[in-house]
Amino acid sequence: MSTTDLLSATGALVLVVGLIFLLRWGAPLLRPRLSGAHGARLVVAAQLALDAKRRLVLVQCDGQQLLVLSGGATDVLLPLPPAPAPTAFTVDTV
Fold first, then answer.
1. How far is residue 81 from each of residues 13, 20, 74, measured CA to CA in Å?
2. Which of 4, 10, 19, 76 could connect to 69 by a Cys-Cys bridge, CB 3.0–4.6 Å?
3. What is the pLDDT of residue 38?
């Protein structure tokens, strides 16, 4: 094995290890842009597996919550009723 071969192999190894460290550092910076999470209009808030086929998913879209039942013959979209306003009460002091 000549010196040129040894230097070439060492240089290639340094390049690959450098790329691995660069990607490890840069991947978290790119993740919000790739996933679309920044300013997303559609968010899956919760999901529940009902059985092996069907799933109930709570979806938030533009501030409105919807229930989606999926996995059967047809998917069903159910709007949630608005949450009741909290009732105000007064406390009488004696």
1. 60, 50, 22
2. 76
3. 57
Q: Which two tokens stand for residue 68?
A: 């989606």
Give one DSSP letter per residue of 1-42, joined into a string: --HHHHHHHHHHHHHHHHHHHHHHHHHHHHHHHHHT-TT-SE
Distance CA 68, CA 47 (A): 9
Say which residues have a Cβ less than 8 Å from residue 89's Cβ, sequence separation at least 6: none
d(CA 23, CA 29): 10
CA 72 from chain center: how many Å? 24
pLDDT band at 81 (very low <50, low <70, confident <90, very high): confident
- In this prediction, residue 5 carries a pLDDT of 92
Q: Model confidence at 30, in pLDDT bands (50, 70, 90)? A: low
